[in-house]
Specification:
Order of helices and strands: EHEHEHEHEHEHHHEHHHHH
Shape: globular
Strand order of the largest sheet: 3-2-1-4-5-6-7
Structural class: alpha/beta
Number of helices: 13
Strand content: 5-15%
Number of strands: 7
Amino acid sequence: MPTLRNKVALVTGAARGIGAETSRALARKGVALILIDLDAEPLKALAAELGDDVALAVAADVCDLPAMQKAVDSGVAKFGGIDFVLANAGIASFGSVTQVDPATFKRVIDINILGVFHTVRAALPSVIERKGYILVVSSLAAFAPAAGLTAYNASKAGVEHFANALRLEVAHRGVTVGSAHMSWIDTPLVQDAKDDLAAFNQFLATLPGPLGKTTSVDRCVDAFVDGLTKRKRRIYVPRWVGAFAWLKAVVTSRIGDRTLLPPVPRILPLMDEEVVKLGRSTSARNVALDDVAVDPK
């Protein structure tokens, strides 16, 4: 059976949510961890919890390639190399294309796409040396669009195809690549959207079947650990998300529009009104971290 013991994993977005809980689960499996996040305090607390012999915490912005290279070099120096990369860092914005703050839209693209590139670029030489595995965190949003979440949808579709192309580039080097696709997971990203926006909660209520349901972080972590262990090509959480990968052409056709369009004239203006009242197009947590990225002191 495949084992994770004595392997080294680099995890971005490691301070909270899926990144933090997956790191804890990997540590229990005997994995050493290079933990990267812009949110320094919870990141340091997690590393302290896991122990200095198990985890190295590096506060860095995935949008900064030199900073990511420095973080990777520190991890390789401490643990000898990198076997796994979990490119998990990501944020979302809300509001229509006519209302969303352009700077926030750009920040989503920078973190969710360029951040994945920078993570992989910095870690890839060591991963190639150890014939490792890279897991890029995409989303159900890569297959199914949602009004008011355009930047997130575009970024997650982008990193899915980044993973597909990367897989072709590194297969002959002994490296495998997977992508993870989740529906709504009970992370700070989803929690903040629910707290900020009545429109987001109404949007979830309009979705048919399981599409509006939120899945626990623990269930997602179990799938990620299993995927890392088996070096899976695709991870779906919950499993029904896989059907949307096959049905993407239908979901984005006129047939799919018939399901997705009806609530938009009511919910999207409400979301835009709430964005104006909030004075921001993303969570307060993301705004605070953006300030750190601008002035890391």
